[in-house]
Amino acid sequence: MKQYVELFKQLYEVIDKANIMIDEPMKNHTYFKVGGPADILVTPEDIKEIQAIIRICKENGVKYYLIGNGSNLLVKDGGIRGVVIKLSKIDKIEVEGNKIMAQSGATLYNVAEVALGSGLKGMEFASGIPGSIGGAAAMNAGAYDGEMSMVMESMLAIDNNGELLTLTKGEMELDYRSSAILKYGYTVVSVTLNLQVGDVEVIKARMDTLAKRRSDKQPLEYPSAGSTFKRPEGHFAGKLIEDCGLKGTYVGEAQVSEKHSGFIINKKNASAKDILELIQLVQNQVKEKFGVQLHTEVKIWGEEKESSKQV
């Protein structure tokens, strides 16, 4: 940690020491429940702290990473060199008329519940998606014929120099599982949603229906990062994987779910290496049999353990 002496000194000036963790296991911060330690993990409590941390990292030449709830993240067993900025404490939600302003750390579940309580429809599709609204906005997350692009009006972000900027709908560059946030390395601070007035009972019924569909069809009882692969054009990843006979396939303690082949799960005590090898096996076999290249939807960060590196 000698290389971080000056960094620590500056961080201590802008953020409470209780919100700075050293050698923090990332398995404690991801839905997959795997991942080695981050050199430093910080949990800022307001926007100014995020800006200050980003500036400090850049001034000291230290790489930084932004996470919400870690629902779409796989961290390798060697962990992460640099600073992980976890935004889960920045989670305020406000309602004004038919608009909701949600800070990046707010969970999609909580945002959907606030919308329900306010009689606003449009967020039902997201009520069961794990993770934060900041991450969902950045990747234009979607499910059940809905996606964030359908409800987002604008977002407040931090650029690579630590400055705030507002992105309008047209400036977000929203595409399938992509946005200007991912393209340019910005940080989502808050999202403004433009929803419609609806009937509370109808909204609740839709949320309940989708929750049951998820429970029936997805392996929610095991750690995972949701759908492992992006949907290839003209195909469904889960169907391709199942047609390769890979449903239930193991590598170590990682498994292609028997409930839904599009999910790779941590069946017991999988390592990130197990999961990555199973992802590669699936990609290779789908490519060989169908000529389709599967691309991961889950983000993969970090380093391999030294012992597993090739010499």
Q: Can you describe this structure?
A:
The chain is 28% helix and 24% strand. Strands 6-7-13-11-12 form a five-stranded antiparallel sheet. A hairpin with a 5-residue loop joins strand 11 and strand 12. The two termini are 26 Å apart. The chain folds into three domains: 2-86, Uridine Diphospho-n-acetylenolpyruvylglucosamine Reductase, domain 2; 93-216, Uridine Diphospho-n-acetylenolpyruvylglucosamine Reductase, domain 3 (2-Layer Sandwich); 219-303, Uridine Diphospho-n-acetylenolpyruvylglucosamine Reductase, domain 1 (Alpha-Beta Complex). Helix 1 packs antiparallel against helix 2. It is of the alpha+beta class and 311 residues long. The longest helix has 19 residues, at 272-290. The model has no long low-confidence stretch (mean pLDDT 93). It is built from eight helices and 18 strands.
Features:
311 residues, alpha+beta, Uridine Diphospho-n-acetylenolpyruvylglucosamine Reductase, domain 2, Uridine Diphospho-n-acetylenolpyruvylglucosamine Reductase, domain 3, Uridine Diphospho-n-acetylenolpyruvylglucosamine Reductase, domain 1, 3 domains, five-stranded antiparallel β-sheet, four-stranded mixed β-sheet, 8 helices, 28% helix, globular
